[in-house]
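Proteins fold reproducibly. Look at a concrete instance:
___
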Amino acid sequence: MKIWFFAIMLATALFGGEKVYATFDVVASKNATLSLEVSGIIKKVYVDVGSYVNKGDILAEIDNATQNNDLTLAIRDEKIAQINFERAKANYARYEKIIGVIDGFRLDGFRFDMLSAEANYEKAKATVEAKKTNLQKTYLKAPFSGIIANKHIEVGDGINSMTLTPAFEIISTGSQKLVLSFDEKYHKIVKAGNIFTFNVDGHTKQLIGKISKVYPQVDPKTRMAKAEVIVSKIKTGLFGDGYIETK
């Protein structure tokens, strides 16, 4: 009997693995807290809690009359700078053809005027791009497709960009992940690719997933290690438990 028992234990050590108990929470694959980059008064809010949005959709905007006016003036100045540069360039080209008639000093003056006008034109173009960027910052856009999980702003609210006032929380849809917690003593034997058999709280059906990521550090407060399993069609916010096959 002792020989058989030893053989079974040896086979388990060589070909089997330990089952590691783990609890988990179901969270979205992507989640983010969104804030506006500039200060101002909320002018429009386009979404609410539960709204589905696509990447790039405008979620809210602040009063941007000042930014619009600044951009209009910058575009006007750019056009003026462009006209001045084209005129200076044409003058220089015209007098360069008759270099034998006018002296070099005078031609240098036309060249200086052309280069100065060109620098002003480049500066005006850069200003327009900066004003366009400032205007875009008055719009808050979705960084990825998902659903609005929380809304913290209303029309008329004042926003201070220095304090990064939260505006929305957005979570991705389509896929979720289980964030597993298990005893730190198993941290070295749990690997990506291990099978995880689990049950979601309130459901009797047993499900199977695969470890996609093991966190490199152990939580110093709880002494628990963590890992992730990518899943689908499981509602975020649920929880459950199961066993990791470490063979």
Summary: Helices lie at 2-15, 65-96, 104-136.
